């Protein structure tokens, strides 16, 4: 990624250099932002169906990457097979989490649920460390590492994969929620659980489904980002928090606002790291989060009490 | 059709319902009336699975359905509407009714996404069917309106349309006329009669006596958690105990 440092360099080489640097930051910001978006949408789906902020969301991102590695290295699967297996296994883990940790709670209060999902996240992380160790691993890129040059900036084929897969996931999601009866039923649970159960919707099944969908989305995010950032047992925490920021920026919508939130966050981070200092990279996301929670808790795009999902 | 036997409900030490029993005949419009606090809404909540009863049995066409959750009851053909209408606010009127047909859908996401012939046919069937129910309740011109923006009266009609889309055998309505003006109430009573004409059994809790006396075939009167009387509108109107309960205690 871009190493645009030193103003003197910018002054010497003039405008075109500066432009290509900015473009570079923009492109890498968009691709990391797409990852935040996917994770954020995962947060929102569960929140909308159940009112739970699932702080274990980041762990499913980690599981996606680690399980892909497991299927590749241990079971010697080819990449095209390892990926769907890893997604399926992470989804199963998400369903298991809901069944074993969330569902048994009778009359859960928000604070119970927060503690529970944080506890779940620590547990999953600990198990991953025990099973796979503390080493950082790399997953091969999906289609080579030949850089592609765009207007003076360079990106890797994996960046295109990230943008493409995110676009696909978000479209499938939108299609599901707006066009299928099952998706409408899940939205119905978000709007009014009581009325939903009265028209024959099994709310508990919908809750489980929301965990399945969002752990699958988390796993996909973890898999497509792993070739760029490497994967280890503890990548879930930070990625999860960034995804949470994206969801907050998007007002917990599982549609375009959260995707925009993720992209804005990614670009801000990448610009901040490049133009100010890479030391502030993570701080930027949390400054954005705090400002939004203080000033616009309904999200950047939402009206107060706007529609969700 | 629907049989309630010995249903009791305790809230702490308060007896909200005390061994209430009655039978509702298929195709009837039955009114459940009584002064405030008589236990009408509690009874409805028990029949529709929102509260779990303390004692007693609810039998729907020979099947014991006591204690089943609302979504199972809906699948068995028992639905209800609420006094404070409960809609899916952010969805359109049409979508609200389509969700009501959720139980009748079988296509998965993949089949929908790939536009498989059976899923396309199913979606068309659901769309057409839900429009049919919007027509039936007279709000099809509002199909694309967001449900949260509906005036109260039309919200109630939408709730009824959504309940009908479940294709129930029995529909329970909790004070359907509450908050409606005279004209809307008149239209509502015509609607309830048309619902009955399609073969659906109707049970309603209602305070509007004119409405109850006009459209109900039978009336069950509750007072202080007990069944006070049961019979045709005429019989209950002339029942001295009922008159005493209404004039002596309330209103």
Task: Draw up the topology in text.
The complex is a heterodimer of chains A (about 300) and B (about 250).
Chain A (H helix, E strand, L loop, with lengths): L6 H44 L6 H17 L5 H24 L7 H23 L15 E3 L2 E3 L1 H23 L1 H11 L1 H6 L4 H27 L6 H14 L6 H21 L4 H15 L14
Antiparallel strand pairs in A: 1-2
Helix pairs in contact in A: 1-5, 1-6, 1-8, 1-9, 1-10, 2-3, 2-4, 2-8, 2-9, 3-8, 5-6, 5-8, 9-10, 9-11, 10-11
Chain B lengths: L1 E10 L2 E11 L4 E5 L6 H8 L7 E6 L2 E2 L5 H6 L2 E4 L11 H8 L8 H5 L3 H21 L14 H14 L4 E5 L7 H16 L3 E5 L3 H7 L2 E6 L2 E6 L1 H6 L1 H10 L2
Parallel strand pairs in B: 3-8, 3-9, 6-7, 7-8
Antiparallel strand pairs in B: 1-2, 1-4, 4-5, 9-10
Helix pairs in contact in B: 3-5, 3-6, 5-6
Q: What's the CATH topology name of chain B?
A: Rossmann fold
Based on Cα principal axes, name the global outline of chain B. Answer: globular
Helicity range of the residues of chain A?
Answer: over 70%
Distance between the termini of chain A: 34 Å
How many β-strands of chain A, per DSSP? Answer: 2
Q: How does CATH name the architecture of chain B? A: 3-Layer(aba) Sandwich
- Kindly report the name of the CATH homologous superfamily of chain B: P-loop containing nucleotide triphosphate hydrolases
Largest sheet of chain B: 6 strands, mixed
Radius of gyration based on Cα positions of chain B: 19 Å
Helix and strand element order of chain B: EEEHEEHEHHHHEHEHEEHH
Question: How many DSSP H or I helices of chain A?
Answer: 11
Poorly predicted sequence stretches spanning 5 or more consecutive residues of chain B = none
């Amino acid at each position: 990624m871009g190493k645009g440092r030193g103003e003197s360099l910018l002054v010497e080489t003039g405008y075109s250099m500066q432009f290509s640097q900015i473009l570079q930051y923009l492109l890498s910001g968009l691709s990391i932002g797409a990852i935040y978006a996917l994770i954020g949408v995962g947060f929102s789906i569960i929140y909308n169906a159940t009112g739970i902020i699932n702080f274990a969301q980041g762990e499913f991102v980690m599981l996606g990457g680690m399980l892909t590695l497991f299927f590749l290295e241990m079971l010697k699967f080819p990449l095209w097979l390892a990926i769907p297996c890893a997604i399926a296994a992470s989804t199963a883990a998400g369903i298991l989490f809901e069944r074993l940790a969330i569902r048994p709670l009778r009359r859960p209060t928000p604070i119970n649920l927060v503690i529970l999902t944080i506890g779940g996240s620590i547990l999953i992380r600990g198990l991953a460390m025990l099973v796979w160790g503390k080493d950082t691993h790399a997953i091969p890129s999906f289609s080579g590492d030949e850089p592609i040059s765009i207007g003076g900036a360079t990106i890797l084929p994996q960046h295109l994969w990230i943008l493409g897969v995110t676009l696909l996931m978000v479209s499938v999601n939108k299609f599901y929620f707006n066009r299928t009866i099952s998706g409408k039923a899940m939205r119905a649970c978000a709007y009014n659980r009581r009325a939903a159960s009265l028209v024959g919707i099994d709310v508990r099944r919908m809750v489980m489904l929301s965990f399945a969908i969002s752990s699958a989305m988390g796993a996909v995010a973890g898999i497509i980002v792993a070739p760029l950032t490497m994967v280890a047992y503890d990548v879930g925490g930070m990625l999860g928090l960034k995804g949470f920021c994206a969801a907050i920026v998007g007002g917990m919508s599982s549609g375009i606002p959260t995707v925009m939130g993720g992209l804005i966050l990614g670009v801000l981070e990448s610009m901040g790291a490049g133009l100010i200092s890479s030391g502030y990279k993570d701080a930027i996301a949390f400054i954005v989060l705090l400002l939004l929670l203080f000033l616009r808790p309904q999200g950047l795009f939402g009206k107060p009490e706007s529609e969700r999902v | 059709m629907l049989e309630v036997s010995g249903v009791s409900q305790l809230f702490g030490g308060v007896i909200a319902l005390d061994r209430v029993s009655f039978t509702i005949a298929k195709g009837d419009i039955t009114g459940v009336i009584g002064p405030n606090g008589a236990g009408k809404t509690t009874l409805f909540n028990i029949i529709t699975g929102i509260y779990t009863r303390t004692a007693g049995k609810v039998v729907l066409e020979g099947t014991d359905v006591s204690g089943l959750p609302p979504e199972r009851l809906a699948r068995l053909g028992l639905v209800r509407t609420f006094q404070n209408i409960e809609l899916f606010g952010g969805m359109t009127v049409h979508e609200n009714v389509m969700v009501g047909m959720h139980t009748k859908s079988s296509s998965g996401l993949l089949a929908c996404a790939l536009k498989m012939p059976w899923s396309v046919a199913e979606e068309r069937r659901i769309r057409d069917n839900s429009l049919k129910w919007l027509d039936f309740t007279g709000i099809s011109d509002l199909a694309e309106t967001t449900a949260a923006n509906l005036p109260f009266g039309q919200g109630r009609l939408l709730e009824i349309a959504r309940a009908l889309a479940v294709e129930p055998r029995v529909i329970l309505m909790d004070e359907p006329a509450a908050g409606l003006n005279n004209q809307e109430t008149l239209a509502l009573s015509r609607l309830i009669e048309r619902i009955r004409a399609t073969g659906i059994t109707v049970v309603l809790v209602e305070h509007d006596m004119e409405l109850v006396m006009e459209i109900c075939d039978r009336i069950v009167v509750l007072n202080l958690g007990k069944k006070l009387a049961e019979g045709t509108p005429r019989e209950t109107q002339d029942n001295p105990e009922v008159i005493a309960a209404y004039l002596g205690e309330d209103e």
